[in-house]
């Protein structure tokens, strides 16, 4: 007896994009929703089965690993522009409907912003899931520089003793090492370019770890400024979630996707 509720998911495949191969997985039918993951860069399997299954019931869902990460070949891109253009070539190579809805989580919000500004004709809607802030934060610039320099070093040290995830720790270290430059790159581009006038939702975490009030206000202001990049931009608060919204409250993301799809 066949379970009618079971969805047969095709295994990931490799797509040639420029000088390297990107691992991509496509599931579901209907309008296209492209998920761009956080700083790990390995998008396949990183969004959680519940969220991906729910989205696949209403759309064609694309997940992928960035170049040099996970199952994709090549080396990690040195700029957000390169990441966005690589994704553009991947989407163009796939037989999926465009324009599409692009969903960026955390660091993936930087890639999604750059994509929207460089390839606006591809974009039907935007959803940002607790995205990395691009505005100058409060506090000491020296402390931030030290923190960004120290964290990749600690990740590489951890990789020396890790049994299973050593490679992913090293890949994350590379991404975080370039984080300050990535933030500055996107912030500078936003001063020169505009987002397409499409529905835009920023899903922000309702449960934050303890942080100074100034830091919290900065994050909230940054997310509001991002929502205001579109005349149809809104903030949605995932009241029961921390930064891991795809796992803590996946329904918040599904509702945001439905909103930009006009459902």
From TrEMBL:
InterPro entries reported in the protein's UniProt record: AB_hydrolase_1, AB_hydrolase_fold, AB_hydrolase_sf
MF terms in GO: monoacylglycerol lipase activity
One Pfam family in the UniProt entry: Abhydrolase_6
Keyword Acyltransferase attached: no
Domain annotation AB hydrolase-1: ranges: 39-256
One Gene Ontology cellular component: membrane
Domain of life: Bacteria
Listed GO biological process terms: acylglycerol catabolic process
Entry keyword set: Hydrolase
Signal peptide: none
Protein name from the UniProt record: Alpha/beta hydrolase
Organism the protein comes from: Rhodococcus rhodochrous
């Amino acid at each position: 007896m066949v379970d009618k509720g079971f969805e047969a998911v095709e295994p990931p495949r490799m797509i040639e994009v420029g000088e390297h191969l990107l691992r991509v997985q496509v599931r579901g039918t209907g309008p296209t929703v492209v998920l761009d993951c956080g700083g790990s860069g390995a998008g396949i399997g990183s969004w959680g089965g519940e969220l991906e299954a729910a989205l696949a019931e209403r759309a064609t869902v694309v997940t992928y690993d960035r170049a040099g990460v996970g199952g994709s070949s090549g080396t990690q891109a040195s700029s957000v522009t390169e990441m966005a253009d690589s994704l553009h070539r991947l989407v163009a190579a796939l037989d999926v409907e465009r324009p599409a809805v692009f969903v960026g989580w955390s660091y993936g919000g930087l890639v999604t912003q750059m994509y929207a500004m460089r390839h606006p004709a591809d974009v039907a809607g935007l959803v940002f899931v607790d995205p990395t802030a691009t505005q100058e934060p409060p506090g000491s610039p020296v402390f931030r520089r030290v923190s960004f320099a120290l964290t990749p070093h600690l990740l590489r040290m951890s990789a020396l003793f890790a049994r299973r995830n050593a490679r992913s720790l090293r890949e994350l270290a590379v991404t975080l090492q370039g984080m300050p430059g990535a933030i500055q790159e996107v912030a500078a581009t936003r001063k020169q370019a505009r987002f397409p006038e499409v529905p835009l939702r920023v899903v922000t975490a309702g449960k934050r770890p303890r942080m100074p009030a100034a830091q919290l206000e900065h994050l909230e202001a940054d997310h509001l400024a991002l929502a205001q990049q579109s005349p149809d931009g809104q903030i949605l608060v995932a009241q029961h979630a921390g930064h891991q919204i795809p796992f803590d409250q996946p329904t918040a993301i599904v509702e945001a996707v439905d909103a930009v799809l006009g459902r």
